[in-house]
Design goal:
By secondary structure, this protein is α/β, with parallel strands linked by helices. Helix content is 54%, strand content 12%.
């Protein structure tokens, strides 16, 4: 078969398999016929896409995808990011960069494909702050557990929890009759100093998030929803992307966050399981923790949501009620993001501004 000249046909859709240094580009024309399948370096990819006539560019939503998406948009291309799990069914036979790029290109052309919103630099900054804070919190928890474990080997027990360690550790260090050697006491002081430094880092990130929430209009609107504080509001803004309307409705956002039941139905018999736990684990945790905080006080309130939550608590497990309320919070948040209107908990409605 005669090979077609790529210069005779216009590329309409491009699939790019991203990596650190090697990038494979697979492009097709309006009939879906291959026009280009070639590997580029990072520099060569930028040059190629800058000179390519405006077309649809598809990539997996993975590391550096949002950076490339913003860059390609600057060249006039329409960019579509696809979750990797939606690309996998289109991979043929064995796996390599060329086949992956072809699968991405094929998936992008499906009429019912779901796409990921491209994040702005500001949204990536917010997300980075949350990720750094999360890592420091994990390190601090590990440090607290190590201190408690080491002291228990010397017969000194500290109650569980970071606050208890902070309260008892200075007393243990100052007590010269508790059987600790000078060598271990010196090392323990270093661990205590490191723990103090981690506390300062967490406080620093908390202040950054609070400052950001106070100055961001969308965050201020989201914080009118009971259960959404500065952390939840800013994390939601960072995760959803520039256009929340990529979700058809609030239920789509809740499903994306893994707050809806998994389904395993067949033969006309519906079977619902536990929540799917898809999407951003960190954001889902923030919403569920916020819902738990709200559930502690619903009996003292008389708005529609509180009455609904009170009745739910009476007949279902507390964890089920917390997830259900988190689902409702996500749905309300979708409306706030799409309309820009704050929420009035007392009326259960949105305030026109």
């Amino acid at each position: 078969m005669k090979e077609h000249n790529s210069n005779e046909r216009v590329v309409k859709v491009v699939g790019i398999d991203l990596a650190k240094r090697s990038f494979h580009v697979y492009g097709v024309d309006e009939r879906g016929q291959r026009v280009i399948s070639k590997t580029f370096t990072r520099t060569r990819l930028s040059e190629f896409m800058a000179n390519l006539p405006a077309c649809t560019v598809a990539m997996e939503a993975c590391g550096s995808a949002h950076h490339w998406a913003r860059q390609f948009r600057g060249h006039g291309h329409e960019v579509r990011l696809i979750a990797p799990q939606f690309v996998k069914p289109f991979v043929k036979s064995n796996k390599n960069d060329a086949i992956d790029a072809e699968a991405i290109c094929e998936a992008a052309q499906r009429p019912n494909m779901r796409f990921v919103a491209v994040k702005s630099v500001e949204q990536q900054d917010i997300q980075a702050t949350h990720r750094m804070r999360s890592l420091v919190v994990e390190r601090r928890t590990a440090q607290v557990n190590q201190i408690r474990g080491l002291l228990l080997e010397y017969g000194i027990e500290i109650p569980q929890g970071r606050a208890a360690v902070g309260q008892h550790l200075p007393e243990i260090l100052d007590d010269l009759n508790n059987g600790l050697s000078e060598r271990f006491r010196a090392e323990l002081r270093e661990l205590a100093e490191e723990l103090r430094h981690l506390d300062e880092r967490v406080t620093h990130y908390d202040r950054q998030i609070e400052t950001l929430a106070e100055s961001h209009p969308q965050a201020q609107a989201l914080m009118t929803i009971p259960g959404l504080g500065a952390k939840g509001a800013t994390a939601l803004i960072a995760a959803v992307g520039e256009d929340p309307r990529l979700f058809k409705n609030g239920r789509g956002l809740a499903a994306w966050l893994g707050l809806v039941p998994r389904q395993h139905s067949t033969g006309g018999r519906d079977r619902l399981l536990g929540i799917s736990k898809r999407g951003d684990v960190y954001l889902r945790q923030l919403l569920i923790h916020g819902a738990r905080a709200v559930l502690r006080w619903v009996e003292r309130k008389d708005d529609a949501t509180s009455r609904w939550a009170t009745a739910l608590k009476a007949r279902r497990h507390p964890n089920v009620a917390a997830v259900a309320l988190a689902n409702k919070i996500a749905r309300i948040a979708y409306t706030v993001l799409t309309t820009g209107q704050p929420y009035d908990p007392a009326k259960g409605a949105f305030v026109k501004v």
